Amino acid sequence: MDVLSHMRADDAADAVMDLPQERRTGILTLLPAAQQTKVMTLLGYHDATAGGLMGTDFLALPGTATIAEALQRVRTATTEQPEALTTIYSLNPDGTLAGVIGLVQALQADPTALLGDAADPEPVSATTGDDIIDVTTTMADYNLLALPVLDDHGHILGVITVDDALEAAIPPDWAHREPNRNTTKTGQPESEWNEHKQ
Fold first, then answer.
1. What residues contact residue 13 under an 8 Å CB cut-off, 6+ apart?
2. Which of 13, 45, 54, 85 could cross-link to 149 by cystine, CB 3.0-4.6 Å?
3. Is it the case that residue 184 has pLDDT exceeding 60?
């Protein structure tokens, strides 16, 4: 249980789903209140949708924050998933998503610039019901390291990181396959490679 309480909410939700049905409720009640809320929220989504894939770690600040302030938040976000910090989100006054900027772009920007001015005002996003194919296709098309998942009003519910998207897209038998030790780095069988070298 101590291990589960220290997991990211999305990983904890996956672990709970792997448990027999009759054990899930008991385990959930033992989690810290804040984590229990996050895990329960994630368990409400089908695991093959954007809602089921997303994590709850992300960095979002008002558009009036400076780039320097945003980068300082990155530095101090030591408990957040590192992959989720590759993108910084700019928010409108009502808390809805306004823009997005990559961490490298932010590092290269004027530290005194406002986040709202520096961020891309047309962020790509997903909804909770989007399936794995939609998610991975969108992330590939736009070369995204993270994809925000929005509610019906435009608020960020969570973020899908590229590592989670890839893990979900790779067939289970591929993920657990044994490496073929009889092939070279080129993919050729070792015997053919040796013949070619001769």
1. 39, 42, 43
2. 54
3. no
Give me the pLDDT at residue 81, please.
85
Neighbours of 112 (CB within 10 A): 8
Tokens 């030790």 found at: 181
Instruction: Please check whether residue 121 is in contact with residue 98, taking contact to mean a CB–CB distance below 8 angstroms.
Output: yes
Decide: residue 39, CB within 10 A, 0-12 exposed, 13-18 middle, 19+ buried. Answer: buried
Copy the structure tokens of residue 182.
Answer: 């009889």
Cβ burial, residue 102 (10 Å; 0-12/13-18/19+): middle
60-96 per-position pLDDT tens digit: 999 999 999 999 999 999 988 899 999 999 999 999 9
Q: HSE on the CB side for 1, CA within 13 Å?
A: 11
H helix intervals, the chain: 2-5, 9-17, 21-29, 33-43, 50-53, 67-76, 103-108, 115-118, 132-141, 162-169, 172-175, 190-197
The conformation of residue 54, written as its DSSP 8-state character, comes to: -
C-beta atoms surrounding 31 within 10 Å: 20
pLDDT at position 3 over 70? no
Adjacency order of strands within the sheet including 126-127: 126-127, 146-150, 156-161
pLDDT tops 70 at residue 11: no
Nearest Cα to Cα of residue 84 among 191, 198, 184, 162 = 162
